Each structure stands twice: as structure tokens, then as C-alpha cells.
Amino acid sequence: MRLNDDLLLEFPKISKALKNKTPLESKYAEVITSPFEVIRFENFIKGKASIRKLIKNLDRLEFDENDNDLHCSKATTDLHNIHSPIIKKLISLIEKDVAKLLSKLYKIKLKPTISITASKYLDGDYLLCHDDKCEDRAIAFIWYLSEKWRPLWGGSLDLFNQDDDGQPNSIVRKIFPEFNSFVCFQVGNYTYHQVSEVVSKDAVRLTINGWFHAKRPPLDPVAYIDTIPPLRLPKNLPANVYLSSFINSLYLTESTIEGLTLIFEENRNVMLPDALLERVFKNALLDLFQYSVKWRKKGPPNRRNYDCADEGSLELTLQSLLTVVTSKPMLTLLESITNMKLNKMLKNGGGITIEVQKWKSGYYSLLYDENQSSETEGLDMYLFFNVEGVYQGLFETGGTVLYSPATEDEEGTVIDPVDNALCLVAKRKGETNNLMPSATDAQKSQRLEVHQSIFHLKGSPDLFQKPFSRMKPSKTFLSFASKRNVSANLTSLCSYL
Fold first, then answer.
1. Where in this chain does the entry annotate a coiled-coil region (predicted)?
2. Cα dihedral angle (308, 310, 314, 320), rounded to 10 degrees?
3. Is the model's pTM score more than 0.90?
4. Is the pLDDT of residue 15 over 80?
């Protein structure tokens, strides 16, 4: 196994292009200069026979599932741990010949040992926007091993440009997996990239990938403050407007509220099926699909990617619904259900935020260290629309909302959307919430939701009456929230409890 000799002939051209920061396209190499410098080699290794022998060896290895908010894929252990002659030859080739080549091109002294794994992306797998910065990583590399890959299968390496704040903005270049091509770039503050979702049931995106390391000063973090949406305070409802004109009257009775309180106190979450009157729900759903609604992208992509409606463009039913759910009577109802001191919270510097959000395939929100919401505590409310047009089953697809616990000893809360369900979740300081990307096949359409947060930043030791126990929904909660029991009688449910 050895490098294609013709690549060495391209070395002077590549070196000149990097020095002058000019793009290059030649027979065996390409230099991309925007949005950041990337080198792409074609026919990287000489001889298909040795490559196919390597692939057979890789197919015998165990690929472990990697599934979290950032990515879903399969990967091996570091290939240094694999006792295979051809894999050992590959590692030696990259650590010596390739490292020497890249060290000269980038004018950087590399450490002798690399990080190297094999990765598989199958149908539905992805890697969301990130910059690869971590400790002493210097150069990232990917060697593509899938033959006859089609662009319509996805799996491209997407490169993001940056906005004025140094955050990723939009995809400006796609590099599709081409057999025996090798892609590399210096890891930097603005090397934002992702692997787009693989969307073929028969495709396997196989790569060898990793990093060359170097002793160099740590990269300064990009300064960015993720602001909280504008705060509002609850107001009285207009004359002749009542909660009962919008909210299912079942949830306005004392016995029902008592039952909901029992569930909420046990789980710190509760879902109210059929929360809105049927006509209100249907009219609001129709309003959400009006062409007059103006949607704007909510980013940046290394934190989130969804659409948010301009409130001023919403039709009458939705405008009225937002007025109701942020009103003083609604706050009183939420206090009664949750036993949380929401009014006290608002009087002590708190506020309400509300967004009308659109979620579809490829949309997500991520956990991240600088999340402002992790510094808040209070109550989150979700009201879901058009779930039936998106999901085949309540717990079968992506698109769930996950709450990461404040400590490792606790479990997170899982919310699976249900049409016309209002979900309440108590949130403590240190917890963060994110929405997992939705499976493409399951999300042909769009899910829409009203997301409201009532919170304050200061923290309140007596906001919660007792500490969280298990936050994962109980069997009772899941039964209560499921589609099959969406009209469950709360009186009998409370008797069961």
C-alpha cells in the first residue's frame, strides 16, 4: 500500500496555492480556499486491490454506535488497537509519508502519532455542525472508501461560512464522498463543517478519518453571547375573552387539576392531551400554514437550526392564542397545576418568552456549554401541531425533545410530541434542553409548536418543593400521553394513581 506517485507531482502547485491563498483544480488535487482552506486529493492510494483488501479487513471489525445530540453514526476503536497487517501498513503510511507531506504544505511540525478510526454512516446517520477544535488537534483528515457514491444519497462534507460574530452561517460548499479521495484541513476557530444525513437504505458511507496532532498554543474561543428572546410579563385578557374559549374545559375543573398536580409532582412533567378546543386547534393549524406567515431561520447552526415565526405575520387565531397562553389567567392555571411559584418568580426579575417554531427534517437544537437557558429555572410549556402529518408512531422516530439533567446522578426528561397536547416541564438551573434531529422518512411534512418559557435568572431555593427524583416519564405518564389514550379520562386516571 502506497501513495499515488502522481500526487507528488502536484505538490508545487498545491504549495503555491496555499501560499497565495488561491483556489486550485488539477488532475489529482484541489485546493479550496473558501469558506476555509481544504485540500482534496484524488486517487490517493495506488491500486484498487490493496484498498479492497483493506475494506474487507474493516468489514470484520466491530463498529460501535455513536448516538447523541451532535451525531449518529458507527465507528471502530482507534485503529492502532487493531492487529491487522494491512491496517498497520495504512497507519504507517499516514503517520510517515502523509504526515511528512502535510507538514511541509502547512509548515507545521506534527506529532508522530495520529488519531485514526474507521466510520460508517448508514441510512439516517449524520454529523451536525462543529469546528473540530479539541486540545492539540492540528489537521483533520477523511479518506473515502465507498465506491460509486451518488450525491442524492447525501453524506456530503458540508462547509459553512461565518457571520460577523464568527459563528457558522450557511453551507457554501459540499464535498461528496468519492472513492479513494482524501480530504484534509487545518483545524481552526472557523472550520465549521458537518456530514449531511445519509438518505439511502442501501448506501454505506465508509471512511478512514482522524486527526494529526501538533504542539501549538490553544486556539482562543470565539466570543459569542447567546441571548434570550425578549421577555414579556403576563397581562389581563381582553374583555369577553376567557380561557374556556380556547382551553378544553376538562382542564379547568378542580378535580382534573388535582389529578394533573399529582402527576406533575411525581415526574416534574405532565402532558395534557386535547388541550385546545377542537375548533381552536384546527383554526390555529390552518393559520400556521398560511403563506402570510413569515418564518426566519434560528441559528447559529453549531447550536440550533429551526424556523421561528414573526408574530406580527400571524393570523387572528394564533395571535389570540398567544395572548391567552401568556395571560394572567393562564399563569394562574399553570400555578395550580404545577404548584410552582410562578408569580413570585416573575416579581423577582423573571419573565416569559414565547416562540412559534417550525421543525422538519434536518432541524435540531444542540446542547452546548454557553447555553444561557442552563442558567435559568422555571417552567417550559409546549403546544404541538401537525404531529400526525409527521410521525408514524409516538416513540418510533426522531424529533423528541430531551432535557439533560443537572447532575450525572439524575435521568433526563423525554418529550415525544402529540397533536394538540400541551406539555409542561419543570426546569432547574443546570439543565439544558435540545431537540434531536428527525428521521427523514418520518418527517416528510413539518411539525409546528408554540414553545413558552416562564423563568428567572437569579435562582430560587424554594421554587421547587422537593428535589427531582426520576425525571423520566413514568408508565402512568406515558400511558396518559400516548396517542392511543389521548382522550383518557383524568378522573379514572387520578383514581388509578
1. none
2. 90
3. no
4. yes
